[in-house]
Amino acid sequence: MHFQLSQTVACLSFIAGANCLSTPRSGKRSIEVRDGVTHTVFEHQETGAKIDYVTNSGVCETTPGVNQYSGYLSVGTNMSMFFWFFESRNSPATAPLALWLNGGPGCSSMIGLFTENGPCTFNNVEGNTPVLNPHSWNEYANMLFVDQPIGTRFSFGSETYESRDFGIFTESYGGHFGPRASEYIQSQKADIASGKIRGQMINLVALGINNGYYDYEIAETNFPKFSTNNNYYPLINNSNALEYISEIESQCLPGVSKCSPFEDAFLPCVAIDNKFGQFFLTNYSTHDIRQPAPGNFPPATYITYLQGPAIMKKIGVNVTYSECSSDVANNIDNLDDVVQSGVTTVIWAGDADAVCDWFGGFAAANAIQYQDQTASNQKVVASYTGNGVKGGEFKSVGVLSWLRVYGAGHAAPAFQPELALQVFKLNMMKTALKST
């Protein structure tokens, strides 16, 4: 099931733009009250798409004067996706717009909202009520969180966000669909500029992927290296790791380039993984090897919170929340094209994550083909600081930056929120990473 990224962005103009709400250009707007909650419904005349949302639910973002909107965008029969939009806490009328997508594949972006970079958090909180997150990314930008799955296609829009700088941020399996969405936006923008098609320009300026899964070959060969050379402790002994890598390279990878990960030709790779799985430690969290299994940070308190009937009604949802779904399609990455098009890109990762480890992220960054690739690969990594505090190591050449975050697991912003906000701001400002 695929949905239209551009429709999501465009529909925000009907939500956040007063002019569009009062005088929609091509559609019908109505107000409905359900269970005591007021919903705004806008149906687009040309496409048949419908957006149904609640304004200022009072859930999560409680900063005075900061607006929020949550609800569903429907683009066909039984085809809806949930979104939650938060205005920037600072100058929302001129602030840029950023989209957050979690990975999985098929995982809800509420994970990022409540545990990583949203306006409220349960991290380091006792009890079942979230508190405001001082390092929320809507400190700088208008933030849109959209649940999976999602695809890309231009369809309709209006002017409210047309001239805004726009960024896409994601993690984990977002290493596939983040670049895919970005590449499509860039290619459509070129076609619009040339007159080949008619459409609305989206000014994509930034792509950020933390702890991403980019490429099977890179992931398979680098995980054993991470397992023996991470800064915490070995997950497997060196001799087994070397044998593991040897079998991957000789028996698995030759067939990978000829097939999809879901085809039978991949079975030798699965067999090798199963063979060597017995040699790995098992008493650690794969999302943060510093924690014993299954890991309890970031906490999952938000799941029960979102499943509460009162909260569901306030934010305008009609299905019970679940964290992930496996009913998704496979996507491929287009990082080369995105970086070559001039989009400021950050590849970064928490260094305690064994799911999408930083060794693989570093190799993926080095594999990106762009005009500064040689200089980037030759550049020596340097210490990265935020407000004078050492937080990792990095390198930046041209529009591409790579960052390893110390003391962070798979959901890097949850572990190092202040540093993550700095990375986000620099990326949205079209600035290569630099220490502060």
Summed up:
The protein is of the alpha/beta class. The protein is 33% helix and 22% strand.
Structure characterization notes:
This protein is α/β, with parallel strands linked by helices. It has 2 domains: 351 residues, Alpha/Beta hydrolase fold, catalytic domain (Rossmann fold), CATH 3.40.50.1820; 62 residues. The strands form 2 sheets. A 13-stranded mixed sheet has the order 1-2-3-4-5-9-6-10-11-12-15-14-13, sandwiched between helices. The protein has a two-stranded antiparallel sheet with strand order 7-8. α5 packs across α11 and α6 packs antiparallel against α7. The protein is globular. About 7% of the residues have low confidence.
Q: What is the CATH architecture descriptor of the largest domain? A: 3-Layer(aba) Sandwich
Strand order of the largest sheet: 1-2-3-4-5-9-6-10-11-12-15-14-13
Helix fraction? 25-40%
CATH topology assignment of the largest domain? Rossmann fold
* CATH homologous superfamily annotation of the largest domain: Alpha/Beta hydrolase fold, catalytic domain
**Quick check: average pLDDT?**
85
Total number of beta strands: 15
Which secondary-structure class do the elements indicate?
Answer: alpha/beta
Describe the main β-sheet briefly. 13 strands, mixed
Instruction: State the end-to-end CA separation.
Output: 43 Å
Q: What is the CA-atom radius of gyration, in angstroms? A: 22 Å
- Beta content comes to 15-25%
Name the poorly predicted regions.
Answer: 10-24, 150-158, 327-332
Number of domains: 2
Which geometry do the CA atoms define? globular
| CATH hierarchy class name of the largest domain | Alpha Beta
Tally the helices: what do you get? Answer: 14
Please write the string of helix (H) and strand (E) elements.
HHEEEEEEHEEEEHEHHHHHHEHHEEEHH
